Amino acid sequence: MKKSGGFGEAQRRLTDMQLRQAMVQVEYWHLQNGRYPDSLAQLASKADSDRIILLVDPTMMKFGTKGSTYFFYSRSSDKTHYWLRSVGPDGQPFTADDVVPALPDSERMKTGLLVAPP
Fold this sequence. Notes:
Layout: H1 5-33, H2 40-45, H3 49-53, E1 72-75, E2 82-85, H4 105-108, E3 113-114
Parallel strand pairs: 2-3
Antiparallel strand pairs: 1-2
């Protein structure tokens, strides 16, 4: 089924909202622990079920299947920054269909979020 029109737009808004919330959770972890989490699974292990849902990439959810896939998350080699994004329909990070948290640069600079590919 092609994801276009109202469904595609609704999925995009949901993805944007959940990415922002996932970023907040990553930054909160950083404040509490003095470092960024190793993975979103590590973050989810300390979260309640509502917060786990916000770490799941809506573009990777498939109807009729069990399990979900988290957003793409990776720390920089120096572990002081991270990439967080929805991989989009192609399932590959750092391609044209990715969705990144929509933040003005002035706000993003206060976080560890990286948007340019490694």
